[in-house]
Input
Amino acid sequence: MAEEVAADYTLNNPDTLTKYKTAAQISHKVLEAVSSWCVEGAKVLSICQRGDKLLNEEIAKVYKGKKITKGISHPTTVSPSSYITPYTPLSTDADEAAITLNSKEPVKVQLGAQIDGLGTIVCDTVLVKAEKDQDGEITGRDADLLLATYYANELLLRLMIPPGLLASGSEQDKKKAAAEKRPTQAKISQLLETVVKSYDCSIVEGTTSWLFERNEIEGKKKFVLNPPDKEGRAEGVPEVGDVWGVEMGVSLGAGKVKTIDQRPTLHRRTTITYQLKRPSSRQTLSEIVKKFGNFPFSLRQLDDERAAKVGVVECVRSNVLRQYEVVTDKDNAPVARLLTTIAITKNGLVRLGAPPALDVSKCKSDKKITDEQILKILEQPTARSTGAKGKSKKKKKKPAKKATEEEDEEESSEDE
Output
């Protein structure tokens, strides 16, 4: 009798990429809906609840009858202006349940889906509109913040590509390109600071990108921008076959952060095991394991929110659960955040779950990037063209006007 072959969850298996892309399609659809609900006067709690409901509905439509796990890889969170971490209030906390959105404030919408433990998470920053507002020009400091975040994110994504991966020319040219030294974390942080300083902004302290693995969104590798201490150093480097959650956080202030005195409502299971003493704690943990595995969740997603608030106390104290503290900008300055789930393949970078590209033509700012090295990097592609279509490309005045997201989807068709 043949031995059972272990499942292959690497990108070498086409099914893996298909599952990631299926999860990403759900994430994109729900992100678009949730973003449209972010209007003046809308309750944050209501938006989060509706977002999770839609996520569950869309997830239920795929892989029907298959014996695989599927679910939410990150609950719907809506973080107001100066909030940095994902925020999701509880209905049993009256003050927070009453929080509404203000016109023109930048809110961070983050959510995600997972198929067979392969999760994609996406975050976008949207400016809250009044009910009757139509999409128009974005000016002043709002434009500065969005442009700084967009360009810094585009630069970081290009710097994630392994040296020489997209090199062309002779074999000798390719070998020479592959032998180039990777930019250090310090060098990358310097380049990104140059981008955001062009718009009088700052990188948010401790902005971290993580390697994604099956059932794990904080893998063995990480990359930290503007690290607050020595513990914030990079671990590992991006390589072909990796899937990463790439984060960009930008502030209109100095980028310093503070933890505020507000109940953490977002948690995630750790790998630590402990014999919990309280029956309520064991019951809560059992529900968490069954519903969410190792993915983040909100206490409002549990059957009994009030019981969950009690049940997680011992779990957190025993390090069985990690709680995500509520962190804001130290100066209460507006903050923007983006999170993109990428796969690095032999043909370059594939944006699995990504925020929609910013329409830079609508952002009117008197500031711009002038650094020639940065402008040159921004003009570089993120993936190798593998098809015959789209050979005639018009020249663009600004590198950010490239339809990078669409190109990635086209160019990834033959990645594996």
About this structure: The mean pLDDT is 90.
